[in-house]
Amino acid sequence: xxxxxxxxxxxxxxxxxxxxxxxxxxxxxxxxxxxxxxxxxxxxxxxxxxxxxxxxxxxxxxxxxxxxxxxxxxxxxxxxxxxxxxxxxxxxxxxxxxxxxxxxxxxxxxxxxxxxxxxxxxxxxxxxxxxxxxxx
Length: 136
What we know:
The protein is mainly α. It is built from five helices and no strands. The protein starts with 9 loop residues before the first helix and ends in a 6-residue tail after the last helix. The model has no long low-confidence stretch (mean pLDDT 89).
């Protein structure tokens, strides 16, 4: 059995995953509003439509996929801790692949990609610091 003092702070990881959900949820809602023909409900309709048109298809899909992966990661964190790390790694891969396609475009000025990377780095550090998640 793992030393309880060395177990990862599951509540902190839960908070990190919830924080990681905020940005893809925001962008997914904005993308879906444009897709259904309601850009007037987005944060800034003209800018949102312009950014949407400049966004590669994969970068439009990646935030939606990340929501599913992060929600699955939350379930795994509490029900099947051994599966959390693969879900977390998949989230990072989806984020990197979607973000790298848009990073060179000067129209994309929001620091959200960097914020997500920061949160992922802290969560990754917690996982590495405290070792494998204990089974429940």
